[in-house]
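// run 5 | inverse folding | seed 20
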């Protein structure tokens, strides 16, 4: 089993959809491509001390980019929408500044 720190890459909390889903008690993460739903559930429960009700995943296709005359493509990545049980919240941004 992969360690929880390697499964969850980063939260996706600054998009309009993520803010709307936060009201429905859902959180969005970028996760490792080879992680499955069970591993993602255990990683969120261990790192954030919350109970997870469901996990939905999807592969996001990489975008095409131009650099001068050449073309390249960004890598595909995996997104997980984690539904928390009632009463569970994850606060990524606190009002206190970092020391």
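// decoded
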């Amino acid at each position: 089993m992969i360690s929880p720190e390697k499964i969850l890459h980063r939260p996706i909390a600054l998009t309009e959809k993520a803010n709307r889903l936060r009201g429905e008690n859902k959180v969005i993460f970028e996760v490792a491509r080879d992680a499955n739903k069970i591993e993602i559930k255990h990683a969120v429960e261990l790192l954030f001390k919350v109970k997870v009700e469901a996990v939905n995943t999807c592969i996001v296709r990489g975008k095409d980019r131009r650099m001068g005359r050449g073309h390249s493509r960004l890598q595909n990545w995996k997104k997980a929408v984690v539904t928390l049980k009632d009463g569970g919240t994850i606060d990524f941004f606190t009002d206190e500044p970092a020391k």
